[in-house]
Write a structure and sequence with these properties.
Number of strands: 7
Number of helices: 6
Distance between the termini: 9 Å
Oligomer: single chain
Largest sheet: 5 strands, parallel
Strand content: 15-25%
Order of helices and strands: EHEHEEEHEHEHH
Shape: globular
Length: about 180
Amino acid sequence: MKTIVVYYSGKGSNRFLAGKAADALGCELVELEPRLAPGVIFATAVKLSIGNKQLSQNFEDYDRVVLCGPIYMGSLAAPCSDFLHKYLKKVKKLDFITCCGSTDEKKNETFGYGKVFDKLEKRLGMQAGIFEAFPIELLLGEEQKGNDQAMMNIRMNEENFKGEIIKRLGSFVARIG
């Protein structure tokens, strides 16, 4: 099965996660580069397309595309939405992973990843694959959980990529097959 991981990362955690996923899947890794990088969060909030730089890959050649990117204010980041708008017709199966601020307990609230997963599943229909969240909270020590400042400042890296995060990645990779 030919797979590719396509990602956008604002602060680096999704870049790290995408790299780990591509390594585990033994596949190509491609970065989405928005045309207007400083405006990504604003564009996401107002559902504005800012476009991405052209990709050279032919997505019809892949059995699966794993899209990795952040969720901002309960919405898929604009570069990921723009990727779907441009390439979805060429994608056979799309999986989605995210390192996000939503916790598992709040996944179905207004800004939770569960709402984004539901919207993606409806949009993708038969193309929908496996969706998995890697909440940033899982990177924090017990003494920092619930600390909003700690959550805003932490980035996924080799040091904190352990425990539940590794289990989730292993499960995701196993489900893709």
